[in-house]
Each structure stands twice: as structure tokens, then as C-alpha cells.
């Protein structure tokens, strides 16, 4: 077995091989081993190190990506479903530990020395991943939830007697929630709103390890994605000053559902019910796009956010666990 470390964007063929491997694992495991951000970083210029595991014939059998841009290196790791229990996962984890040891959060602007500590995400919290991580001395440190709910029939459609309407809504029938006086809602404008959005995003997610450190380049990379539509990133602003108070960003990659990709409220505007409002706006927007379900990712210990989503009718449908090593 051969592990190759690459610290620039992968060649197209390697990136395709990783995507194919991740797709095979998802089919087998019922959960995607690599997150959307990790897939974006396969071929982009980013603060990540790629570890590619090949068999003797040179076929890709496993992959890990180590994000060294944060406070502490964090990785995602996958082994071909047909080739597990042969030590590939362990070899990749050794490579992750080595990267963490050699480059402890080297490029993070706000990085503190992590003394070789690192973590690995176990998406879906699969039993084999838990066993694997436990066998390697990793411990659960952070839990991320997928929460979802149906949006068919349309949110905002008033149903007499509370019964379920029979017809799914068309775009024209979806009612967006009423806005408080003095506020207005409009779509993001590319080329105009980037800096204001980044500022509110950084302030709203100041305590969040990934979302809070999104850069202009990260935002641009999202804007250039095929799924990006400016009209799906809705800005709530003060009607007089135009100051951005919060936003809800809906991401749609297929017909199965719409993701409430990011909901953020400026700390100065928190406590006014804008979180509930923007969640309801996001749900209406998913319905307006004709999609049957809405889903989102949230930190399990983010009580204000989880409470907001529970009250909006979301349920927890999947869990990912960050498994942490304290010392490489
Ligand atoms: C988790 C994963 C990366 C393990 O890869 P792997 O190549 O099978 O791992 P290894 O062969 O190096 O296994 C090392 C040890 O982990 C434990 N382990 C791994 N899979 C296990 C399973 N299904 N049941 C029990 N223990 C398991 C064992 O102790 C194993 O040693 P052993 O085979 O000598 O008993 C792989 O199952 C995978 O890709 N899962 C989906 C993605 C994922 O969840 N990634 C997050 C990892 S934290």
C-alpha cells in the first residue's frame, strides 16, 4: 500500500477518482463520507492536505483530506467499501496524524498551536467508524445533526381545520411570512453584497469553527458552483439604513429537497425573532421551488439554533460525530 500526500489541488483524474470512491461508499453505507466543502476542496486552492491510498496496481482504495486552516487539523476519511478491514483506514489515519504533527493548523489566520491533536469526522456515526476510531484512541468531541421536515404541501398555505391540503403548492401559491415593520427582504446581488454578507456571517458565526472563518475566496467558490442562485440567498435588511440584519441561504442540488444552507442573524439584531422568521422564509422558499423536503446541518449543542428548528417542525434525521485525538 502506498499513501501519497498532496498539498495543492488534485489533478482532475485524481479528484474524479475520489468522487467515485465517495459515491461507492455512500451507496454502501447510506451516508456520504465526505462533506460538500471537502468535495469543493478536492481541486481548489485551499489549506488542505490530501492523502491518497493506492493498492499495488495503482487503484485508489482510500482517501483522507486534512483541513489545516482551522484552529486544529480536522479530517474526513473514507476507504473503499469492498476493501475494508485491511488496514487502509489505519494507514490513512497515520497519515492524518503525521500531517497534524508536522503542520499543526499551519495556515490558519487565527490558528493556535494544536500540539499534534486532530479530529476525524464520522458522518452518519456508523458503527464501523466508531469501532475504528475507538480502536485508534479517538474520542467523540462534537456532534453535528441533520434535521429535516416535509414542506409539501406548501408552508404558509392556510389549511382550514388544520387538515393536510391534497395538492402540492405551485410557486404562486406559496406565501412568504409577513416581515416586521422597518425590515425588507431581497435577493443577494453578486458584486454588491459580498462584503456585507461576509461581515454578518463572521459575526453571527464567531464561535463556529468552519462557518465563521469563511473568506471572500470561499464565498466566491460557492457563487461559482452550478447550484448557486442569487435569488436563493435572501437578505433581511433594515428598510431605512439598508444594514444587513440576517440572511437565509437555500441550496438545492437535486429534486429530493432543499437545504437551509446557512441561517445567520447579526448579533446586534438577535433576540428579535429573526431566526424564526428567516427559518420560515427558508421553508417557504424551499416550497416555492417545488421541493418536498427541507433539511439542514446544525451543531447538536447549539441550543438556540436547535430550538429554533424544532419549533419550526424539523426533526433530527442523521448524526455526524467529530472523533478527536488529543495527541498524535
Ligand atoms: C471507518 C473506515 C475509514 C475504516 O477503514 P478500514 O480500512 O476498514 O480500517 P482498518 O482496516 O484500518 O481497521 C482498523 C481497526 O478498526 C476497527 N474496525 C474497523 N472496522 C470495523 C468494523 N466494521 N467493526 C469492528 N471494528 C472495526 C478494528 O479494530 C480494525 O482493526 P482489525 O481489522 O485488525 O480488527 C471505513 O469503514 C470507512 O471508510 N467508513 C465510511 C467513512 C467513515 O465513516 N469515515 C469516518 C472514520 S472516523
TrEMBL record:
It catalyses: 1D-myo-inositol 2-(L-cysteinylamino)-2-deoxy-alpha-D-glucopyranoside + acetyl-CoA = mycothiol + CoA + H(+). Acetyl-CoA 1 binds at residues 77-79, 85-90. Gene3D superfamilies: 3.40.630.30. The keyword Magnesium does not apply. Its EC number is 2.3.1.189. It is an enzyme of class 2 (transferase). Acetyl-CoA 2 binds at residues 263-265, 270-276. GO terms for biological process: mycothiol biosynthetic process. Keywords: Acyltransferase, Repeat, Transferase. 1D-myo-inositol 2-(L-cysteinylamino)-2-deoxy-alpha-D-glucopyranoside binds at residues 210, 251, 259, 297. One of its GO terms (molecular function) is mycothiol synthase activity. PROSITE patterns: GNAT. Residues 1-152, 183-328 form the N-acetyltransferase domain. It comes from the Bacteria. SUPFAM superfamilies: Acyl-CoA N-acyltransferases (Nat). Monomer. Catalyzes the transfer of acetyl from acetyl-CoA to desacetylmycothiol (Cys-GlcN-Ins) to form mycothiol. Belongs to the acetyltransferase family. MshD subfamily. This is Mycothiol acetyltransferase. It comes from Flavimobilis soli.
Amino acid at each position: 500500500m502506498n499513501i501519497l500526500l498532496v498539498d495543492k489541488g488534485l489533478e482532475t483524474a485524481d479528484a474524479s477518482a475520489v468522487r467515485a470512491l465517495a459515491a461507492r461508499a455512500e451507496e454502501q453505507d447510506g451516508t456520504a463520507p465526505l462533506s460538500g466543502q471537502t468535495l469543493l476542496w478536492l481541486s481548489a486552492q485551499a489549506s488542505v492536505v490530501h492523502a491518497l491510498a493506492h493498492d499495488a496496481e495503482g487503484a485508489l482504495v482510500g482517501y483522507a483530506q486534512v483541513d489545516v486552516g482551522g484552529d486544529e487539523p480536522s479530517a474526513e476519511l473514507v476507504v473503499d467499501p469492498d476493501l475494508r478491514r485491511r488496514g487502509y483506514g489505519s494507514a490513512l489515519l497515520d497519515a492524518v496524524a503525521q500531517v497534524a504533527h508536522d503542520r499543526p493548523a499551519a495556515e490558519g489566520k487565527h490558528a493556535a498551536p494544536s500540539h499534534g491533536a486532530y479530529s476525524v469526522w464520522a458522518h452518519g456515526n456508523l458503527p464501523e467508524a466508531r469501532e475504528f476510531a475507538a480502536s485508534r484512541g479517538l474520542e467523540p468531541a462534537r456532534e453535528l445533526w441533520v434535521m429535516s421536515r416535509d414542506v409539501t404541501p406548501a408552508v404558509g398555505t392556510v389549511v382550514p381545520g388544520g387538515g393536510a391540503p391534497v395538492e402540492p403548492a405551485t410557486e404562486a401559491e406559496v406565501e412568504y411570512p409577513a416581515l416586521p415593520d422597518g425590515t425588507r427582504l431581497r435577493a443577494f446581488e453578486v458584486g454588491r453584497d459580498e462584503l456585507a454578507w461576509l461581515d454578518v456571517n463572521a459575526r453571527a458565526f464567531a464561535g463556529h469553527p468552519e462557518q465563521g472563518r469563511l473568506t471572500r475566496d470561499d464565498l466566491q467558490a460557492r457563487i461559482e458552483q452550478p447550484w448557486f442562485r442569487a435569488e436563493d440567498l435572501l437578505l433581511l435588511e433594515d428598510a431605512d439604513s439598508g444594514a444587513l440584519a440576517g440572511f437565509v441561504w437555500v441550496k438545492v442540488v437535486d429534486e429530493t429537497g432543499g437545504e437551509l444552507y446557512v441561517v445567520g442573524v447579526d448579533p446586534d439584531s438577535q433576540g428579535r425573532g429573526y431566526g424564526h422568521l428567516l427559518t420560515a422564509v427558508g421553508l417557504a422558499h424551499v416550497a416555492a421551488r417545488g421541493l418536498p423536503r427541507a433539511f439542514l446541518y446544525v451543531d447538536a449543542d447549539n441550543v438556540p439554533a436547535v430550538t429554533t428548528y424544532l419549533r419550526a417542525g424539523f426533526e433530527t434525521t442523521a448524526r455526524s460525530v467529530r472523533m478527536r485525538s488529543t495527541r498524535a
